[in-house]
Predict the structure.
Amino acid sequence: MFRDSFDRLRPGCAAAGPFYCPQDRYVYLDLSFFDLMTQQLGAPGQFAHAYVIGHEVGHHVQNLLGVLDKVNAVRARSSDADSTR
């Protein structure tokens, strides 16, 4: 967990908000993102936080199953509009 920024990431990992880094297989949780969810997005409480954490852990499961690389490859080949569907 961190707040606002994290400076010890491996290359290729995201650096903002909550995210999963497949290189080190860790979920990083930016506590300021949970503040933003409450204050600006109208999503307070433990359920909203658990949803975000579950989403990131889902990326870890995708990585363990070998699906994450396939999804990222398709995403890289598709347009921005296609990748958000």
Notes: The mean pLDDT is 83. The longest strand covers residues 19-21. Residues 74 and 83 are 8 Å apart (CA to CA). Residues 46-65 form the longest helix (20 residues).
